[in-house]
Amino acid sequence: MTTTDHTQETTMRPIYVLNGPNLNLLGQREPEKYGTTTLDQIRELCEQTAAEHGIGLDFRQSNHEGVLIDWIQEARTHASGIILNPAGYTTTSIAIMDALLAADIPVIEVHITNIHRREEFRHHSYVSKAAQAVIAGAGPHGYQLALTHMAQLV
Ligand code: CA2
Questions:
Q1: Would you give the DSSP letter of residue 87?
Q2: Residue 114, in any domain of the structure
Q3: Is the pTM of this model over 0.85?
Q4: What is the Å distance from ligand 1's center to 74 Cα?
Q5: Does residue 34 carry a catalytic annotation?
Q6: What is the domain-level CATH number for residue 60?
Q7: How many domains does the chain have?
Q8: Which of 23, 62, 85, 93 to mutate to test ligand 1, by most ligand atoms within 8 A of the CB atom?
Q9: For residue 119, which of 97, 141, 83, 91 has the smallest C-alpha distance?
């Protein structure tokens, strides 16, 4: 008799895709910088990619540093990896970096734009110190690249 093993399906933790401040405005403001794709559309792209790789997804956005830190702490016990676009907290938040370092699961940092072609103050990222990989400048596709790579890591 053959049996089907659903163990991985039922026990695999999702990937948390976390988005920082102002990313809820994507597609509605400054399209010349950030494009016309909304965050809801990015969520849909991520859901498709996650389904293709057979991984679960939990996609969230917050404008609040403490909320992002709470989610990163939660991810330690509820997620198998974190994909984070820290947005404006990239260059300022030692607290987010510390939370990521403590999470003890793979972290991938994503930026829609190529932060290295932009103003000098955007070049340094505290989050990169805690990230296994960094993807910048690939637009919304960067989230799909991050999920595909995360699927290899977890
Ligand atoms: O390129 C990225 O993904 C950034 O993380 C976006 C941040 C910026 O501070 C980083 O340097 C690079 C800004 C997010 C704000 O998003 C907006 C979207 C539409 C309109 C206004 C802001």
A1: G
A2: yes
A3: yes
A4: 24
A5: yes
A6: 3.40.50.9100
A7: 1
A8: 23
A9: 91
